[in-house]
Hints:
Helix content: 25-40%
Number of helices: 16
CATH topology of the largest domain: Alpha-D-Glucose-1,6-Bisphosphate, Chain A, domain 3
Strand content: 15-25%
CATH superfamily of the largest domain: Alpha-D-Glucose-1,6-Bisphosphate, subunit A, domain 3
Number of strands: 22
Amino acid sequence: MLVEDLMIKSGVKFGTSGARGLASEITDQISYAYTTAFLQHLEANNEINPGSQMALAGDLRPSTDRIMAASAKAIADKGYEPINGGKVPSPAVALHGITNQIPTVMVTGSHIPDDRNGIKYTKASGEILKKDELGIKAQDVNWDESLFDENGMFKQAYTLAEVDPAIEENYINRYLDFFGPDALKGIKIGLYQHSAVGRHTLSKIYKGMGADLVELGFSDTFIPVDTEAIRDEDTRLANQWAQENSYASILSTDGDSDRPLISDENGKWLRGDVAGILCAQYLKATTVATPVSCNSSLEKCGLFPNISRTQIGSPFVISAMNQAADGEMVIGYEANGGFLMNTDFTNNGKVLKALPTRDAVILHIAIILLAKDKQTSVSGLVGELPQRFTASNRLQDYPTEESQKKLALFTQGKDSENTQIIEETFGSISGKVQSTDLTDGLRITFANSEVIHLRPSGNAPELRCYNEADSEERVLEMNQLCMNVLNQWKG
Length: 491
């Protein structure tokens, strides 16, 4: 069966860098078929060697072990060797793949609720791109029907191999070897662990760098922490912890620990696109690739000679980074905090190798060390940037098809007609339209410089709303007013 047809039939579709859907719909058969299709795609493009190893890992969702096992079975049945990395951050297993020139699988739903899950693939060269998604969808996959029952589950369970500790250890040593045991000495950090798969891994890294680390908020129940739409509970927790103790910063990640959260000393979470600017500043980037939705302080700060604006999603950011000229320090970041290094970083004679996939740890470390180098606080770093403020939220349980239909109402007519409809809908919030941008969704810039950006999520039934304004108070007000409009669309 063609994978594209299987996606339609199962409801488990490809979004950013992989497939996602309800855990109940990601059956053993679906997991087996999609991983088989990924391997067939690699074979068709000569991007895997016969008998190659293939590493896999997963997050802490209840369904993860089962999906990992089904993926491992597919790897073994195709003649490759599955290497079990266990429960480690997505960038840890990706690093192992890039270092050893083998493909990888990460079973994770990232920030979405635990009734859902996903399968994220990387090639030996790094994350899959949009052309790879098309190649995987086009694969015709066959399987032994006798393996599965009528519900698509294995009749006989497949057991994963013992965990290879080297995958986590190499990720930890990447930072300890480069920054050294005293880099964070004397700096008090809070680590909000919740249910992030990297909670113990990050603890080992920051303690290994000498930080006075306090572990906070451990949970045995999965918590869907979204670094782009931070929950009120997480805002209150960070503020409470900051009042109870004197931290330089509170750190955290999403479920698979590739997207970071970082707060200032007051427990105020930084927006991902502001954190990205600060990390790029520490790394002395000369080329920055970032989605169109990210804060325009990037251009206004004047720190970066080359800036490329992209569609939303790491595959688009990676494509833009790959087009950069040789000899430049090239990085990419996203509004969700995802940070990617496409160039080796050299400092004091040491080299931190490029890692062109979302990685939370480099952003955490870079911002804290930038504040240390400049003898200021994290809030002081933010205060040095041009003051443009962003906010985002999302309309949940809103099908992608409905989002697309709604946005089409603002874009399908003549320019004057589109402008009239936009102003009838959002004019009471931000006034007259100055321009629109259809790079990814609908981004509206108003005459007063305020921004409303609407975009269907690429990996969940959500309509996301991004806003930008000249003050934090105003952007939060705008975001709430926009969400009031969007909530009416649900009927």
